[in-house]
Amino acid sequence: MLTREDDIDVHALHRQGWTISAIARHLGKDRKTVRAYLNGRQAGVRQRTVVDHFEPFAAYVAQRLGDDPHLWASALYDELLELGYDRSYPSMTRAIRTRGLRPACEACRPTKGRAVAVIEHPPGQETQWDWVELPDPPEHWGWGKTAYLLVGALSHSSRWRGVLCESMEQPHLIDGLDRVARALGGLSKDWRFDRMATVVSPSTGKVSASFAGVAKHYAVTIKPCPPRRGNRKGVVEKANHVAAQRFWRTVPDEATVEEAQALLDKWCSTRGDVRMRATADGRATVATVAKAEPLAPMPAPYPAVLTVERLVSAQALVSYRGNRYSVPPQLHGATVSVSVRLGATHLDIATLPTPGRASPLPTVIARHALAPPGAGATIRTDVHVAALEQAALAASTTAKPHRSKERLPPSVAARAHAATLRTRPAGHDQAEHVEAGVVDLSVYAAAAAGRNTLTPPPAAPGTPNPTKESNTP
User: Fold this and answer.
1) How far apart are CA 38 and CA 155, in angstroms?
2) Nearest Cα to 256, choosing from 206, 324, 161?
3) What is the pLDDT of residues 68-123, one digit of tens each?
4) Who contacts 103 (Cβ-Cβ below 8 Å, separation ≥6)?
5) What is residue 175's three-state secondary structure?
6) Please, which residues have CB within 8 angstroms of residue 437's CB and are 6 or more apart in sequence?
7) Is 461 exposed, middle or buried, given 0-12, 13-18 or 19+ CB atoms closer than 10 A?
8) Alpha-carbon separation of residue 152 from 114, 237, 243, 425 (angstroms)
9) Is-contact 178 302, C-beta < 8 A?
10) Residue 330: phi, psi to the nearest 5?
11) Which of 39, 162, 293, 376 is close enough to 151 for a disulfide, judged by CB 3.0 to 4.6 Å?
């Protein structure tokens, strides 16, 4: 069984003209195994047949060594015995080495000031790749607070190119790899990356399953940088510094994405490629050295699907790479997704999935032929044009707009209301107000007298009681 890296090497060497026997001898594998993987067998699909006794304890060991990188293995072995580990001490240490569970202590292994070896880069052997985060792109780009630049540099000649991207997701990475490699003139044998998660596993350095197909499509070998080796990718790191300082700092605010990309391409060809390099035959420009590198021709782009979100304008148009494409007019102001399969000749515009609906899948509402990037073309269909005209006519009105300095005297109806107000008797409103506001207090007095049930106090001796009837005739 071959690893994913061996599988990639098999396809890369076979694309370069190696025979199956030569590949088998080079990798130390059987010819039937090499032939099976060339015929479509997938790497890394066989299940384990031996029980891994260390697997239940791997998380605990990783946590203990992460907390204390200098913990002795013998002390860790004593702890595992108490937790139920029944294997030997060498089995435990072998499992720790295989999984790479003991991290390097950076405080005890400084890289600054140490000796650096000179790394030989044969012509056409390696291309180095890296992302550059560029802050504060122009607001009208709609990319938020950060733009991204994918930089690819030939290690031998130091020739480099870059592509502006709005995301570091894998489809954008694949699109950038293809565009930069074409700008560099072809494919080298190796592609070197740092441990970016879209290419390799950051912890193990193994090629991800989703990127293995890309490497096989371009017939290149993936070379991840060793961990904690900051000088291993020095060519592209220097290109990153130049791109940030000499290109990005000078991009005008009013420039579009396509104009900024054109500025970068122009700088690379007129400034970057004329740098002088020391060669075995003397000094030569970067362009001269790069022209002599044996690069493989580019195949068709890898068919990844690139998807971005766009806001529909008031004219029912969607912008994508310097061109505009029409959609139905009822979508103006809405957010839609634009999907392009790399290498295809058309793009699809679809609605975004609605949360909570029975069918969350997006609905394709328009398909257009792709215009060249940055052409400034407007692609409309006859159906969309007719629908937009009908919507505009339905929303329009024939009423005459009001002028700011127009004479508009009171109308006949307003004068009639004014005449009614003038014929009312003088003081009528005041009399009504007074009449409605006066209260007769005698009404309240009568009501209070009728409700008075208190017993009067006793009269003094000899005083007649007015409440009793007198018997005097």
Assistant:
1) 29
2) 324
3) 888 989 989 999 999 999 999 999 999 999 999 998 876 666 555 566 667 888 99
4) 65, 66, 69
5) helix
6) none
7) exposed
8) 27, 10, 12, 94
9) yes
10) -70, -5
11) 162
Amino acid at 294: P
CA distance 233 to 34: 31
Residue 132, classified by CB atoms within 10 Å of its CB into exposed (0-12), middle (13-18) or buried (19+), is: buried
> Which has the closest alpha carbon to 302: 162, 176, 440?
176
Instruction: Specify whether the CB–CB gap between 311 and 142 falls below 8 A.
Output: yes
Residue type, 298: M
- pLDDT for residue 469: 47
Residues with pLDDT less than 70, the chain? 44-49, 106-117, 228-231, 354-361, 392-393, 395-399, 402, 426-473
Q: What's the pLDDT tens digit per position in 405-453?
A: 777 788 888 888 888 878 877 665 555 554 555 556 666 666 666 665 5
Q: Going from the N-terminus, what domains does the chain have, and what CATH number goes with each?
A: 4-99 (no CATH), 126-291 (3.30.420.10), 305-353+361-393 (no CATH)
Angle, CA 72 vertex, CA 71 and CA 75 arms, to 5° = 100
- Residue 82 token pair: 């108490």
Does the predicted model carry a pTM greater than 0.70?
no
Tokens standing for residue 431: 């009399």
**Phi and psi at residue 312, in whole multiples of 5°?**
-75, 130
Place of tokens 């596993």: 201
CA-wise closest residue to 85 among 68, 103, 60: 60
